[in-house]
Amino acid sequence: MTDRFVAGVKAAGRQDYFDTVTRGLVLRVTPHGRKTWNWFYTSPRDGKRARVALGTYPALPLAVARTKALEAAGQVAGGSDPRHGLKASAAMTVANLAHEYLADPRKQRLRTAIELKRRFYRNVIPRIGDLRIAELTRRDVRNVFEAIERSGSPMTARRVFEDVRAMLRWAVEHEYLPANPIDGLKGPAIGPPRERSLSEPEIKTLWEALPNVLANPYPSIVRLCLLTAQRLGEITGMRQDELHLDRAEWHLSGSRTKNGHPHVVPLSGFALDIINSALAGADGSAFVFPHHGGPLPSVRASYEVSIHNPEFGLARWGCHDLRRTAISHMAGLGVAPITLAAIANHRSMTHGSVTMAVYTRYDYGREKRAALDLWADRLRAIIEGGTAKVLQLRGA
Fold first, then answer.
1. pTM
2. Where does the chain have alpha helices with state H?
3. Assigned CATH topology for domain 200-384
4. Mean pLDDT by 10 residues, the chain (396 residues)
5. What SS3 class is residue 159?
6. What architecture is domain 3-80?
7. For 270, which of 66, 88, 163, 393 is 20 to 30 Å away at the CA?
């Protein structure tokens, strides 16, 4: 058996292919293209012929399958049955497995670790947490994400499906399961990107309604999303040591940004007013928006906006739509696309070529400040119901 054979083999019906290198190793192929590694042996407990599933291809390549088969042969030689070890692991529930998965240090280091945990405990565990992983079926997983789709949250449904799929692959890798029970399952379709951008009348309505609909500090957070065009999680996690008020700048380290690159946000006078007001109520915390000794979780702010959304009297909006709104209105004010990309920290444009990535060392700080100040002036005019001030430029 070779890697090339395993990758290309097909079967009209269920077919077993025996490896001539590793005794007892079998590749089982179904008409639908599913390929499962099995190892056949004689049980040392009762002397009967037995089979144990090792995993699926391509998650488990040929070399790894051979290694697992040899490990199982070692267990048999030592007098133990490989199936009993797998049964002990497979007896755990989905909730137990999720706990182990989320405790993996690699998962805890993720920037989205809090959101990952929230999705599991809000969407997965209440529905299938009591099921044993050995009994988990594709239908069980479908029941989870289809219910979320029906509730009108297709993007959340997709993310939950990807979370469960990643957890089950992790379970196979760490030998809690012999194979992934949802291999080949197609999750919910990824919908088109959101296009919601608030008009000027909607911005005015939203701004005025915020203190009446949301409790502190959420109005300040939402307003900063609109003023700075930065992400919700970056704003809710704002630290006092990131602020350089003497220079009117907010410095984000790579660990706090989505793309892992440091980012400097010039702060308009309008934004500084909101930040200074928030600092006055921070009670000496290291965070501008403290929550139980730490930063306010972005998911909590997003949830507050979501549940109170109908009270604003607007078509449904989210905090990320405010980032799109700010960028769109700045574009309408004549701000150059490269400056908009620098404000958004989108390196696909600011570092999207050899010239930009290697030779251009300019940070567009002056242009970013001018654009954000221009947007702050326009936003103030929208809120106050006036028009932007027009100054006559004198000739040289």
1. 0.61
2. 3-8, 62-77, 82-90, 94-103, 105-108, 113-119, 125-128, 138-150, 154-173, 200-213, 218-228, 232-236, 269-280, 298-307, 319-332, 337-344, 347-350, 354, 365-384
3. hpI Integrase; Chain A (1.10.443)
4. 90 89 92 87 87 82 88 85 64 87 80 82 92 89 91 85 93 80 85 82 96 95 96 94 96 88 94 95 91 87 91 93 96 95 86 65 89 96 72 56
5. helix
6. 2-Layer Sandwich (3.30)
7. 393
